[in-house]
UniProtKB/TrEMBL annotation:
Region forming the signal peptide: none
UniProt entry tagged with the keyword Hydrolase: yes
Name of this chain's protein: NUDIX domain-containing protein
Record-linked Gene3D superfamilies: Nucleoside Triphosphate Pyrophosphohydrolase
Keywords assigned: Hydrolase
Residue stretches making up the Nudix hydrolase domain: 1-131
Cofactors, names only: Mg(2+)
SUPFAM superfamilies, A to Z: Nudix (SSF55811)
Length: 131
């Protein structure tokens, strides 16, 4: 039916992954979003992270982490999300911005509280011994 193309920031610290929850939602997502016209992945990801978490990704630390695809949360069957993920260091203090109600560091035990594509990422990180 269709593919939603998104970017995400994977930040793992002490066996926990940084996730955010939007107002009125009960599902956690990795920070990130969609590219705007003419934006590179790095530009879009940096913009989304500033909007959502009020921190700045450090340019020379941004590196690809993988591409994951699954059924899109809250969309009809057959609509998938393709998440192109990056890792990076950041500057600043994490704080909810834009539509974000809560920021949490989730463990693998919190996997069921995340979207389908994020569950794939949790499993991938678990297989690498990071979660």
């Amino acid at each position: 039916m269709g593919v939603i193309d998104k970017l995400a920031w994977i930040r793992v610290t002490d066996g926990r992954i940084l996730s955010a929850r939007s107002y009125g939602r009960n599902t956690y997502y990795l920070p990130g979003g969609k590219r705007e016209a003419g934006e590179s992945d790095h530009e879009a990801l940096k913009r989304e992270v500033v909007e959502e978490l009020r921190v700045e990704l450090v340019d020379d630390t941004i590196e690809p982490a993988g591409v994951f695809e699954a059924q899109a949360h809250g969309h009809p069957d057959g609509v998938t999300v393709r998440m192109t993920c990056y890792r990076a260091d950041y500057r600043g203090t994490l704080a909810p911005g834009a539509e974000i109600e809560e920021i949490r560091w989730l463990t693998y035990a919190d996997r069921e509280r995340s979207s389908m594509v994020d569950k794939l990422i949790f499993d991938w990180l678990r297989g690498r011994g990071e979660l």
